[in-house]
Amino acid sequence: MKKEYLCPQLHIWRQVYVVLEQARDRTGDPSMPLPPSVFNMQGWMLSDDLQKQQRWQATRAWAEQYGFLNLIPELSEDEWYEGE
After folding, report:
1. Rg for the chain (alpha carbons), in Å?
2. Within 13 Å, how many C-alpha atoms sit on residue 57's CB side?
3. Closest CA to 52 of 84, 21, 23, 20
4. pTM as predicted
5. Distances (CA, A) of 84 to 31, 47, 55
6. In a 3-state reduction of DSSP, which class is residue 83?
7. Mind listing the pLDDT tens digit of every residue in the chain (84 residues)?
């Protein structure tokens, strides 16, 4: 049975966010919104698995909308968060 991953581990997600934010900044388009924010540690602890999954889906949707989906790398099994 295939595992269902909800989102990247928090430290990996932060790395992805930085790459997306930098790509957005390089466009020079001030009207382009920032990618959905990454949880801080407190937000991560207070968020349930569904909230984490939805935020990640929003991040992927943002990246696809603005042409940056290719900047989200393939993640290895240990880089994914499976939930609790």
Report:
1. 13
2. 8
3. 84
4. 0.91
5. 38, 11, 17
6. coil
7. 456 789 999 999 999 999 999 999 999 999 999 999 999 999 999 999 999 999 999 999 999 999 999 999 999 999 999 987
